[in-house]
């Protein structure tokens, strides 16, 4: 059960975005209570599910760690740590419509969803098989697996996501991006104290989100860098200078309909540090061109089946 659950967690949260993720052999690592993966390249189609005209040019994850408290599975959370997530994206270069590839992509997405559901089902089936047809033991194991998934703690450190474009306006190439120093998500009690919470004891789950040094920049008239590891963060022209934020998420997990229409299923209380927002003329122009290109992509997508493969002039 434990091996199957660990494989499902890694495949669900990470497998869609990185190359060469092999979770077939986790037994030895699990015996040590930790799984470590280093220098994982990002897939070129990691952003394809967003259905936007952007593709990954380069990127990698420096380190992924899954920590499992083997002796305290019902009292301490699993921890997923991600360090050094660097991504450089650019405009989609191949916009030609290929009906065969589109159908294949759609089929692959459906298959991936089915695989994820099947993997989760196998975890619970494994619990059932190991229980020797004992319904009480199955209930215990399934409950433990659910509690583990509900209490997964996420820690992300050193993130830089960057989009570069020298095609839309060759006279003024631009780059925009987001930077995060630290991000953590963890379960808490109703007093917002981090703890391991059992979903059987309450209909409400609480998540505390802490964000440190989150900033957004847009650099106009820049040289395409393609490599984030040597970038100097102080040189960027920030739209939103780095801020610190904390979010308190309350989620009603009851299977019953809510009694009041004014009671939300999910609520968020957000606390922000002082914000400094600036937008220069060249930044506005670059972002405006980018937004117009996205709008054109949305209109073009509706009629892409009938779009000619060559330009009118070439005929």
Measure the end-to-end span. 62 Å
Mean pLDDT: 79
- Return residue spans where pLDDT drops below 50 for at least 5 consecutive residues: 130-140
SSE order, one letter for each helix or strand: HHEEEHHEEEEEH
How many domains would you count in the coordinates? 1
- Strand % is 25-35%
What class would the helix/strand composition place it in? alpha+beta
Count of DSSP E strands? 8
Question: What is the CA-atom radius of gyration, in angstroms?
Answer: 23 Å
What share of residues is helical?
Answer: 25-40%
GO biological process, one term: mitochondrion organization
Keywords: Transport
InterPro entries: VPS13, VPS13_N
Protein name: Vacuolar protein sorting-associated protein 13D-like
Write up what this structure looks like.
- The chain is globular.
- The chain has one domain.
- Strand 4 and strand 5 form a beta hairpin.
- Helix 1 runs antiparallel to helix 3 and helix 3 crosses helix 4.
- By secondary structure, it is an alpha+beta fold.
- It has an 8-stranded mixed β-sheet with strand order 1-2-3-4-5-6-7-8.
- Helices cover 28% and strands 32% of the residues.
